[in-house]
Amino acid sequence: MSMAALLFGFAMVDNILLLFISVYNIITLSDLEIDIINVRQACSKLNQTFLPEVALHVILTVLFIINNNWFLFIFNILLDFWFVYKYFKRQPGQLGVYDPLELNNRRSIKANMRVNNLYLLNIDFICFSTIFIGFSYSFNILSHVLLSLSLFVNPRVDLNTVQLTNTKQITFCNACTISIQTKTILLMSIALCLLFK
C-alpha cells in the first residue's frame, strides 16, 4: 500500500468527521431557530465543535503539505485562514466563538447557518469528493469505474477489444485513447456544476 493511499484513506475519515460536525452544527442552529433549545445551550454546543473542526482541518493541511498535494493544501489552508479570522473576529472577553447575545437575533441565526455551516458543508463535500477520487486513483479503482462508465455510454464496443493498459489509459479498438485524468476532471466539473446549480 502506497503512502498516497494511506494519506487519502486518513483524509477521507477526517473529512467524514468534518461533514458530521457541519451537519451537527446545522441541526443545532435549526433547533435554536424553532426554539427547541435556548441560545446558551446552542452556543455551548457550537463552541464545543469549533476546536475539533479546526484541529481536523489543520491535520489535513499538514498532511497534504507533507505529501506534496498542493491543490488540496491550498484548498485547506484557505479554510484554516477562515477559522483564524473567525476566532480573532470575536469580541474581547467572549469565551467562545459563538456568543449568546449575537445569536439571539433571528437574522444572525440564519446568517450563521447559511455562511458558516451550509457553505462549509458544501466545501467539505467538494473536498471529500476530491479526496475520494485521489484515494480511488491511488488504488487504481477509478480506471475500472471509468471503464464501466465508458462501456455504458458506448454500448456498441466489443468487450474483447477494450484493453486497460498499465499507462492508465483506456483504449477503444486502437481508434481513440482517453486519459483517465481527463475523464476525472470532466466528472468533477459535472459534479461541481450539479452541486452549485
Q: Can you put this structure into words, describing what you see?
A:
The longest helix has 33 residues, at 106-138. The chain has two domains: 3-138; 141-195, no CATH class. 73% of the residues lie in helices and 6% in strands. The chain is mainly alpha-helical and 197 residues long.
Shape: elongated
How would you sum up the major sheet? 3 strands, antiparallel
Q: What number of domains?
A: 2
Using only C-alpha atoms, the radius of gyration works out to 21 Å
Helix coverage percent of residues?
A: over 70%
**Lateral arrangement of strands in the main beta sheet:** 1-2-3
Secondary structure class reads mainly alpha
Estimated share of beta-strand residues: 5-15%
Kindly state the number of beta strands: 3
Number of helices: 7
Euclidean distance between termini CA atoms = 38 Å
* Average pLDDT: 71
Strand/helix succession:
HHHHHHEEEH
Return residue spans where pLDDT drops below 50 for at least 5 consecutive residues: 154-179
